[in-house]
């Protein structure tokens, strides 16, 4: 597990008083914009309870030695609001109702050549200890579906081990 490298992620979330676009997922490949995409989740799930408001989030993956990892929230807001204006010239800061910055370490495994050989197994050398980790989705990318599938597979392994009495039953 220690040999796997991961990227960290910073997700900036904006709640707007109106839709930003008609897109759920907008890939951005423009040297003037630092991030690679905008996800407007309310265009996939309109959330009637939000009464026309929209939620957009902007993920940015980076290694922990990237200077942006130590940026403060306002540095992200300032840069991203300028970029949003570039993408949608009508966008105005007054549309923003609430905003948040979320940071998560080890969010994405870096899958180098030979990755399948170092992917950790679900059954660990410690009897009774099992792990599931997004690195085990390989060769798929991270998805909720893959995590549900892993959970199901590891539950089957635990069940078989229990039946074969390889792990103690704690009641
Ligand atoms: C920025 C980003 C965007 C993504 N976009 C998508 C997407 O569009 N579509 C998609 O399908 N997938 C997406 N994914 C991937 C998806 O989110 C993951 O694959 C999925 O959430 C993994 O589910 P999980 O239940 O295994 O882990 P998690 O969702 O990480 O759940 C683990 C939970 O355990 C809790 N926890 C951790 N340690 C402890 C502890 N010691 N005690 C108690 N609780 C603890 C955590 O707080 C967390 O709530 C994205 C991931 C990221 C980071």
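Q: What amino acid sequence fits the structure above?
A:
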């Amino acid at each position: 597990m220690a040999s796997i490298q991961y990227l960290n992620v910073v997700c900036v979330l904006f709640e707007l008083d109106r839709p930003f676009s008609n897109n759920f997922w907008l890939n951005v490949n423009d040297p003037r914009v630092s991030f690679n995409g905008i996800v407007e989740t309310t265009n996939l799930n309109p959330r009637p309870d939000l009464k026309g408001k929209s939620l957009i989030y902007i993920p940015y993956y980076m290694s922990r030695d990237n200077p942006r990892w130590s940026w403060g929230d306002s540095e992200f807001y300032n840069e991203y609001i300028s970029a949003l204006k570039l993408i949608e010239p009508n966008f105005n800061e007054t549309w923003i109702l609430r905003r948040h910055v979320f940071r998560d370490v080890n969010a994405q495994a870096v899958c180098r050549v030979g990755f399948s050989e170092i992917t950790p197994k679900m059954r660990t050398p410690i009897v009774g200890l099992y792990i599931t980790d997004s690195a085990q989705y390989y060769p798929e990318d991270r998805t909720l579906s893959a995590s549900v599938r892993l959970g199901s597979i590891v539950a089957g392994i635990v069940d078989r081990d229990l039946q074969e009495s390889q792990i103690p039953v704690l009641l």
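Q: And what stands out in the fold?
A: The domain at 6-108 is CATH 3.90.660.20 (Polyamine Oxidase; Chain A, domain 2).
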